[in-house]
Amino acid sequence: MNFYAFKNRFKYGYKKFFAILFAILGVACQITALVLTIVLGIESPDILGIFSSIIVLVAYYYLLTGNIRGTTIAYRGFAVFVFFNIIDFAFMLIRVVSGSFVPLLSGDPISIALMVATLAFSILAFVSGLMTYLKFRSYQMLGRKTTYETVRNWCIVFTIMAIIYSGIMIPFYFMSAAESGMTITDTILYYVLSFMEPTATIFIAICAYFTILRLRD
């Protein structure tokens, strides 16, 4: 294939290319996170955490295989991904508001800034996720009374909020590990887990955006 042909194919197929690329990266990170969750919970298994990771991994798999094959299963994965993140954002809001992370504050300005940022972006991510889900389902099920542009625009906002929120959660989880009193080995594994889970969400959020761009393909 010459350069011109490749350039032409990429021009009209870049959405599929990036959707698949970020889906692969997200699946790889999520599988790593799932394995670490199991390893860290050998003595006391985190059943809820493992179950949640499996559900998320299924959604990621749908996004990956759907984009590869060009089937609507990708949009099923998109809906599950957004819905699951809405629940995650809501749960984080409850934890922050109820003071679950108050012990992390300890008067440290960095901790306080992280707490405020977490609260703010949890709200923004929750609202944008909810609107994205509702507009997407409306576009699918109600005779497309919702326009493609509306779905795309809300998805852009959701993607940005999910990326920022997940980025904030990495140092937040690191601080939790530092306060946990785990062994050195478990602490290192937890650090890796704390990086992999949010990173997987970031990759899949980008994949979800390119998946939505393919609605008109």
Structure description:
The chain is mainly alpha-helical and 217 residues long. It has one domain (3-216). It has 7 helices and no strands. α1 runs antiparallel to α2 (47-69). It is globular, with a radius of gyration of 19 Å. The mean pLDDT is 83.
> Into how many domains do the coordinates divide?
1
Shape designation: globular
Number of helices: 7
Number of strands: 0
Poorly predicted regions are none
Q: What does the largest sheet look like?
A: none
* Residues in helix, %: over 70%
How much of the residues is beta strand, in percent? under 5%
Mean of residue pLDDT?
83
Secondary-structure element string: HHHHHHH
- Give the end-to-end Cα distance, rounded to a whole number of Å: 23 Å
Which helices and strands occur, and which strands form pairs?
Layout: H1 3-40, H2 47-69, H3 73-97, H4 102-105, H5 109-141, H6 148-178, H7 184-213
List keywords for this structure.
217 residues, mainly alpha, 85% helix, 0% strand, globular
Describe the structure concisely.
The chain is an all-alpha fold and 217 residues long. 85% of the residues lie in helices and 0% in strands.
